[in-house]
Amino acid sequence: MRTVRVGSRDSLLAVTQAEMVIDAIRRFDPGIKTELVTMKTTGDIILDKPLYEVGGKGLFVKELDAALTAGTVDITVHSYKDMPMEDNPELPVVAASKREDPRDALVLPQAAVSDSGIEIIGCSSKRRIAQVLDLYPGARIESLRGNVPTRLSKLDSGMYGAIILAGAGLVRLGLAARISRLFTPDEMIPSACQGIIAVQARAGENTDYLQLFDNEDSKISAAAERGFVRALDGGCTSPVAAFSEISGNEIFIRGMYIDEDAGAMFKGTISGSKANALALGRQLALKLKSGC
Predict the structure, then answer these.
(1) Which residues are CB-contacts of 54 (< 8 A; sequence separation ≥ 6)?
(2) What is the DSSP pairing of strand 162-166 with strand 104-107?
(3) In the predicted model, is pLDDT for residue 236 greater than 70?
(4) Does residue 239 contact residue 127 with C-beta atoms inside 8 Å?
């Protein structure tokens, strides 16, 4: 009997997403045995500082990459937005999920009824901070780290007047009822690949069992958005955002770039054939970087 060992972070959301992959494998071939292998990553352990101060998105994949390289697991499952922007040819992304709602969500304490008069917003992402201050100019931003249940617990204990989370994670955890407001992409451009789950494997391995999980449009959107960020030399430490929408054979891309030295934010859009998604993402990035 074939066995597929699935590597994942040990957080509730990460395990939930890994189980989505496992379910797709079982639907493809009920005869395949699956084994979930969980581990803590450096990003899960260092919680007292924002990610951009301690090494960026690579902190969430280092241990999983090592396990995949060593053969301890056969595939690894990630929130695509948490992956480094540079692709690893030895550990390629071999499948991407259908995209969940990619929008950022405002979450209020359980007893709150309105988002008016918020004093403290919990958020550690430079991308979110730059955009939320335009929406809540009187609020103060405080750092927020930890898994989703931990963040919600801190919110409900009174540490924050509101927090910002990816809506997709709340939906996948069955917590959509906690969402008080979903920001439109015009209000807050999501992180590149937000809402997409990525699966990595060793180069050359047969991963046909992921056919029912893989979504071609998600791969195209990921290429456009990651291409945008790479063209700006951006990652977790850079306040950039990219979000694309596909309709038929066309793709529409939104992007945001902040020149921290100049204190200026640039936003723009571009559209064209989805066959040219990567080039379009790069083209938009260079346009914004030039200040146009």
Answers:
(1) 46
(2) antiparallel
(3) no
(4) yes
DSSP 212-255: TT--HHHHHHHHHHHHHHHHTT-STTS-EEEEEEEETTEEEEEE
Catalytic residues: 82
Order of strands across the sheet with 240-247? Answer: 240-247, 250-259, 264-273
Query: What's the burial of 289, exposed, middle or buried (CB within 10 Å: 0-12/13-18/19+)?
Result: middle
Alpha-carbon separation of residue 290 from 18, 258, 265, 267, 284 (angstroms): 40, 12, 12, 12, 10
DSSP lists the bridge partners of residue 7 as 37, 76
Q: What is the pTM of this model?
A: 0.92
Q: 125: part of which helix (H) or strand (E)?
A: none
The DSSP H or E segment spanning 259 is strand 250-259
One-letter amino acid identity for 129? I
pLDDT value of position 53: 45
Helix (H) or strand (E) holding 5: strand 3-9
Other beta carbons within 10 angstroms of residue 238's beta carbon come to 18
Instruction: Using CB atoms within 10 Å of the CB of residue 21, give its burial: 0 to 12 exposed, 13 to 18 middle, 19+ buried.
Output: buried
CA distance 272 to 76: 33
Residues in a beta bridge with 75: 6, 201
Please give the mean pLDDT across all residues of the chain.
91
Residue where the block lists tokens 């496992």 = 22
